[in-house]
Amino acid sequence: MSLEEVNVDVQGTKARLRALADADVTNIAEVYSMGEELGRGRFSVVRQATHLKENVGYAVKEVENESLDDEENLEALETEIKILRKLRHPHIVNLKEVVLTGSYTYIIMELLSGGELFHRIIEKGCFPEVEAQNLFAQILMSMEYLHSLQIVHRDVKPENILYVSEGSVDIKLIDFGYAGIWSADKPLTGLCGTPDYVAPEVLSWYDDDDTGTPYGKGSDLWSLGVLLYVILSGCSPFNGEEEEQLLKLVAEAKYEFYEKEWEHISAEAKELISKLLVVDPNERYTMEQVVAHPWLTDAVAKARAQVKAAQEAQPAVSKVPPPSSAPPIADTLVQRDEKQANCSSCAIL
Question: 9, 155, 207, 337: which is the annotated catalytic residue?
Answer without folding.
Answer: 155
